[in-house]
């Protein structure tokens, strides 16, 4: 038995619940035979992937649902072996080049050229071209993006590329100008309500509106999270009544604990304690940017209005340093120390300008 | 059993597979200039190149300029005019960033190609005469993504085979080409297209494709694409696809273009900017709670979350807020310049891959502080 998220995922463009205008566009594009390269972007859990698979189905028919998973090995210029997982059907292929880290360019060059230079072999296929889906396109390196540029133009007759990204900021302009941009916004509360009602109806129970509202508020526009949450609640108490508490993930409570530590005392000993906790979080593979954001959000809730802006300011600064730098923990700690000193100085009413 | 041997009805013997249906071709390729006289704007460059066509003497060339200004188109058109369709294949080598261009390729492929002496052939199959000068052209597209080493290896090759080979480097940023290479080439700068030449080109394509568009759409195309003709043409084609495939076919509106280009709608941006305490155009009705100046931290944060949830790209938001602030009528110079610093920092951070929500919030908070 699979999760509700997968089980009740819409399979065709007609089943989609929200962004009807977008679905109409996709439908008309897919049936016109003149299909461009596309770039889907939007926050996570908004339904980008669902829309892509629905579009593919519209393009090629049910054949795209027969997936096979493959592992390909590429050789980097320095003869290192790179293993990349590939999901493919007869009509499309799906890759996540960022798996190959720095060598994503090699993957893009070799794989795309190979696909682009062979034509569709299946004569019964609805379309003459194959589709390449590139996930996490915003984490592609500059080189890999540059490698895409001319390939996208040259092999237009054999191949279409669908990029899937969280934001377009990190994509270079030449790529953006070659794609049709498709913005998938997060669903609003009403849309989420309908989807959740739909899911619960399919499962066969009634969803009380106040529970739905609570889940929606907690999920922050992430529909996947909302539905997972719904399923978890249902498991917890089958009749969905009484005082329901939406269980926060462990790491989130842990982050909140860190924030509380920072607020309650500001001393070197406390910094050491916080460091322990950060190491714990990092060793459980929580992305450092997420840690920083969650802790900062919590800290901001608890401090005075006057220093809220400053806390966020330093969070932003250290976040970008973390990206450029190598060792994440330094920057996390630096931020903690900064916040502690801000907080302390605020209490003793000292002027801080000389310490910047 | 007998039915098995019955002649099968001929099922869809389709047309030759290799021909691309012109209707499906991207317009960018379809309307690539065929001769250098077709190249829009870039008068200076075209004038110089036309002279080289008649004298058939060509220097090494370095084309640079922002994307979509016609660099690749110009050199391809020039090569085509010089050699004609027959010789084009064996006289021109085009390498771009999608090909491996490390130092080994420079040493082997480019050197081997540069070394060959071209065969003379004057009469072309289509009856026209082409100048067909006694040299070959190597086009290195997107040359700014070549490594320093590879560029270094090119230096001597360019000189040694100068008699029989000309190089044309095409790049966006001339500063990324090493100095010794740049000094061996005559440089041509491609400027962003001005309003009139882009609009005439777009109108030409629209009439060829039989689309009805009015001037407002063309100016929307030009303003969203900022001098990048390729982007404008792509947008036009996408908009046409969408409008023609809907039922019933509708006319293209400027709003369609904005949506395709990923521009944040003015309403959203204005509300956002107002929350930050910047007064915008008086033609919008300002409701009481949106009165600028009274926004606290929490309001700004909810506003930022809202806008990020809508999925707009941070750099686009930044760009549009910047446009509003910089051309704002009542903010004073000091406020504007401190805002400009913030925008610059945020842009750098976003380029480095920073978290979008954090940085939009940061920009919002600091702009709010600067203007109030």
UniProtKB/TrEMBL annotation, chain A:
InterPro entries: AAA+_ATPase, DNA_pol3_clamp-load_cplx_C, DNA_Rep/Repair_Clamp_Loader, P-loop_NTPase
GO molecular function, one term: DNA clamp loader activity
Residue stretches making up the AAA+ ATPase domain: 34-187
One Gene Ontology cellular component annotation held by this UniProt entry: Rad17 RFC-like complex
Keywords: DNA replication, Hydrolase, Nucleus
A GO biological-process term: DNA strand elongation involved in DNA replication
Pfam families listed in its UniProt record: DNA_pol3_delta2 (PF13177), RCF1-5-like_lid (PF21960), RFC_C (PF22534)
Subcellular location: Nucleus
Record-stated family: Belongs to the activator 1 small subunits family.
Name of the molecule in the record: Replication factor C subunit 5
TrEMBL record, chain B:
Domain called AAA+ ATPase: residue spans: 57-194
Domain of life: Eukaryota
Pfam families: AAA, RCF1-5-like_lid, Rep_fac_C
CC per GO annotation: DNA replication factor C complex; Elg1 RFC-like complex; nucleus
GO-annotated molecular function: ATP binding; ATP hydrolysis activity; DNA binding; DNA clamp loader activity
Keywords: ATP-binding, DNA replication, DNA-binding, Hydrolase, Nucleotide-binding, Nucleus
SMART domains found in the cross-reference section: AAA
Places the protein is found: Nucleus
GO BP field: DNA repair; DNA replication checkpoint signaling; DNA strand elongation involved in DNA replication
Family membership: Belongs to the activator 1 small subunits family.
Protein name: Replication factor C subunit 2
